[in-house]
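Hey, I'm writing a tutorial for new members on how sequence and structure tokens pair up, and I'd like a real worked example in the thread rather than a made-up one. If someone can provide the structure for the chain below, I'll link this post from the tutorial.
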Amino acid sequence: MNFEIYIDYAIRIGVSFICGFCLGIERKSRQHSVGIRTLVLISISSCLLSILSVYMAEAFNVDGDPTRIAAGVASGIGFIGGGAIMRYGLNIRGLTTAAIIFTASAVGLACGAALYVPALLTMLALAVVLFIMNRLEKKIFPAAKSKLFTISFAGTAIPKEILSKIMLSYGFIIHDMNIEYNKDKNQTTLVFTTKTPDRLNLVDFINEIEKLDKLVNFKLDDKVAD
């Protein structure tokens, strides 16, 4: 028996395990549902399929293209990635997780083909994207979450300019505004579609809003109105 080849296979699966484990730690540290076990399984299973693809090309005289196994993995893993993408009200979450799932599969395939250097470079690039670029993106574009800000006033005299200044001072980006007047209650309601910062100081924001004249009520959430 050729034990060297089995040692080689063990190294390939071991490296893919470590890569999947690192990706799983990153996702779990951000409280995402796709965590360590999922990404490790994706990485090592893709590695195994890559080994199988290479083995079939070397051991069997086949007319077909054994690399179709790797192509099938790349297309099939999209179903798992699609399951990680979910919509919460106005916001869509899971896009980065879906991309990491696809990357874990690609890294596993690379490890299965003994392409350790490309796999390592990919992991380094991922580290830059997930840690450094993530902070840079939040610094350049602090307003990240889509929310509806609904506020009602008595009568039609609305302090719109003061309200806009308060929202802008807390980092709100206003995309759209709708207005509704209820004649029976003599109330005017404004509905803003906005982007809000991740670290919005809600307590101070509420204290500023409640000082507005003729305020009836207000609501800030990310739910689509029925």
